[in-house]
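Record type: monomer structure entry
Structure origin: computed from sequence
Chain ID: A
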Amino acid sequence: MNFLIVTEIIKKNLTYFTKEELLAELINLGEKPFRAKQIWNWIYARGTFDFDLMTNISKETREILKKNFTIELPQVSKDLISFDGTRKYLVKFHDGREVEAVYIPEETRGTLCISSQVGCTLACKFCHTGTQTWVRNLEFHEIVAQVLIAKNLIADWDKNSRRLTNIVFMGMGEPFFNYENVAKAVKILNDIEGLDISARKTTISTSGLVPEILRCANELKTNLAISLHATNDKLRTDIMAINKKYPLKDLMTACQTYNKLNPNQKITFEYVMLRGVNDKEEHARELIQLVKKFNLSAKINIIPFNPWLGCEYTNSEQQKISDFQKILKDAGLVAPIRKTRGEDVMAACGQLKSDSEREKKSRVL
């Protein structure tokens, strides 16, 4: 008896490839190298995920592509829009894990805050994300997928009228604990033949991992944001345990190096205002001394604290925040107060946490 054996081709998702990997896959199928550039442009510059719509590719080649590949993005399991236009969406990956990303529209630009890990290892006392146990790092394509999804949701594929202009790695996780995947993602984001979001419009936020700050200075050359939040080692170690490993002197020295290697890129010190903890006049004076001692070209981003259930801290009074800002500005520092956005959908700074984890905790309680 003869048996007919049918072998099903397992299609590969093209969004899982770097540009170099895509080229290798197509050459392996006998395609010319220029084909990779065409497909890359369709996906990342035009937001086209249907092979039949790739009209500068022959029908025969499109059939080969359909036979071997797919173009798929993770699922959006929740999409919330704040009264102020801020949009938070929950992305569910193939293993059921979820992260949050936030799109913040403004008059002259649109910023997307993306995640780099599921959960976080740092457990900074004031941060809601830190209460979610770290599960895993995101793959580079899972990071980029957050951007592709956002552009789909806001219909932002017309290169002449872009709404999503800036990327900030300020979502869930510590980006530099996932450096390799973040670096690959940044390369894709910055690619002028694709998404074309330049390094000058890309900001990576870190709690202060000194070796990775130095790597970023040499390799990625994006803007850098430091989650500072305290002006002396004793206080910073109390609210951010990472300071034990990388104290302020080491952190500020790394920032000096970053400034020297990337004079055109910004360093921002994020400073969340916690009532009675770090919002006194003496803290403002210490902050001035810290920046001037290391001769840093930087701005201080003053952030009103966004409360969340179970947190031990409360937000500083508005007058206290204004007084703090005045001291910094009088000393010649650039020190804007960040406007809180998306608070009603828990999309504000320090509030991100995947809903599945939030719901699990509420059931336990």
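Annotation 1: The chain has a mean pLDDT of 92.
Annotation 2: The chain has two domains: 12-70, 98-364.
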